[in-house]
Amino acid sequence: MLPTTSHSAILIDDATALENTLAFNFIDMSASLAPECNEVKEKYDNCFLKWYSEKFLRGTATSDECEPLFKQYEQCLTKALRSRGIDNMIKEAREDNRENDAEHMRPKR
């Protein structure tokens, strides 16, 4: 027979197990699509993991503290994609699939 525990203890154990899983999965974060953005991406990834595991999962998050780092990474990546012409390819793909997107984004009845 399993020992009885309070509901909150089970939730804490579940959160801890999830934290450990996340920490394991995020240890070897993937590199950025643009190598010149790897440093800022790593800072953002580390910030996000800490915020997610220490605040969000525990219900104490009041804001996304990592947003400034995300914005830096987004700016770096946008600049890198533009310099490679990938932004134009994305724009063309979106234009080519506008009808499909509209159909799939429509509220379901």
Automatic annotation (TrEMBL):
Transmembrane segments: none annotated. Coiled coil: none annotated. GO terms for cellular component: cytosol; mitochondrial intermembrane space; nucleus. It holds the Pfam family UPF0203. Keywords: Disulfide bond. The keyword Disulfide bond applies. GO terms for molecular function: phosphatidic acid transfer activity. It comes from the Eukaryota. GO terms for biological process: phospholipid translocation. Belongs to the TRIAP1/MDM35 family. PANTHER family: TP53-REGULATED INHIBITOR OF APOPTOSIS 1. This is UPF0203-domain-containing protein. It comes from Lojkania enalia.
